[in-house]
Amino acid sequence: MAKNVSFKYVNIKNGFWRHRQTTNRDVTNKAVRDRFIETRRFSALDCTWDESMPKPHIFYDSDVAKFIESAAYIVQKDPDPELERFVEGLIDKIQKNQCENGYFNSYFLAVEPDNIFKRRDAHELYCAGHLTEAALAWYDATGSDRFLAIMRRFIDYIEKVFVVDQSASFMTPGHEEIELALFKLYRATGEVRYRDLAMFFLNNRGTNDKDTTDFVDSWINAFYNQSHAPVREQFTAEGHSVRACYLYAAMADAAQETGDDALFEACKKIFDDIVSRKMYITGGIGQSHVGEAFTVPYDLPGRRAYAETCAGIAMAFFALRMFEIDPDSKYADVIERLMYNGILSGVSLGGSEFFYENPLEIYPPFNNKDVSVSEEHREHFPAAQRMEVFDCSCCPPNLTRFIASIGDYIYSKIGEGVFINQYISSDFAEGKIKVKMEADYLTSGSVRITATGVNFIAARMPSWCKSFAINQPFSREGGYVFIYNTSKPIELQFEMTAKLVSASHLVIENNHKVALTYGPLVYCAESADNGPNISNLAISRNLNAEIKFDPYMAADVITVDGWRLYEQESLYADYTGRSTKTRIKFVPYFAFANRGEAEMLVWMHAI
Q1: What pLDDT, on a 0 to 100 scale, did the predictor assign at position 211?
Q2: What's the CATH class of domain 412-494?
Q3: Which of 143, 325, 328, 343 is deepest in the core (most CB within 10 A)?
């Protein structure tokens, strides 16, 4: 098994991700804080709600928790006394309002005190999990265990209610997440009972009648929250995609901690089901607005893609844990696809606006096509522009914690050997091991690695790369090249070419269409560059690509040969097949919708 190197040992000092982390620290985290002040998420912790005030949501504690976790990751690297004081003030509120028995949930204490642990889908355990992860991160960053002690009291109470007394109205969370926190808590404290509580929730999912009677609406069934079968008998990704991937990540944690082969086999089958049948080219998952859910294989619509930002982050969590058990490049490949595409698109280049959904096609004139009939009942399409905050604003603080801790995804170790999973300019030191990486990965594809105190370096061969050069003898295994002579710098050169990718014929919407990629980046065309009606464009198979760095996007933009098809004004007419040669400009997918409302297209016809 491999052990991922924590971001706290990793320094990202320059390059693409340092730029994004700086924006995350200086702009994004502050923007989330300001919006959460305005929307009373922080003040909900006072537990003073009455009928004259806006009612807090059941998930506000989780939003606050992710903000605190993000702050912890930020101050771990860049001390910020003002931010630390702000977070300590939030912890004061939680401590003040925690019940004698350890329970804390701002919504239920203030709004529904008679329904504590009676509504399975009301996010109590989900919020408790996020708060616990935040407490662990805050302790790790600051050394203060006050918040952690608060949450351990709460977890002790949860154990009493669910395991000892079994007095709750349900047995497992309606929204998974606490399982991940419990495994982290077990690893941090060595208390086996925390691992056992996580296993209790996993082992009882899909096995009891207690969990089948409480659904938030009549249209939701047991597949929605992965309660349709015991976890070891779940082999396909089903239901709400965020809940699902939090569960699958916890199943991988459990398989790693306990050596449970049946759990790991279930995880492998689920991972393959997602990557081979239900994942967008951007790494996005969750195809449908209905239930924010996985649907059937190969149903990957572009305009109606849900691909929630949080789902992409949850999938990265799942893949990271799978790699620790089975060090194979396919897991790091998925993380890379998400990092640079389906997750990063969730935040604007400026850092203060967000996408909840990440579509692969936008045509604004049709987005409100049903408004003349009904304001309430109309076909759902993702927003064409990012927003500063949402009613359900889980994605913004999830993005801030993910970007702040991106160092978690770069290196792994087996003994004194180091795996290079992501090519990000950085260095880390842990014990006698020291590794430094200089990477111009997104533009030239060049990487230089120096290392001391290691037995080997294993460098991932990205799935998109067909040709590479290396200055050292190597062997290959599991999608990695293994270099044992580390006495001099290792130099890698990945061939960077703009290329066209096609989809399976079973992805009906993309039949006879292509997507443009360059290295790990997926590209899209926007009307901001190419004029209106971009669906009338067709890309040349020969490309004749011009690649140019764009400082605003901090990545290359690509212009290629193509055609603008004959634009016919009459509704129907004899087909002519006429077209005009043109050049088509593409920008990285993560950078779309940053220049005003515009049409956008990933998949395009080719001629």
Answers
A1: 87
A2: mainly beta
A3: 343
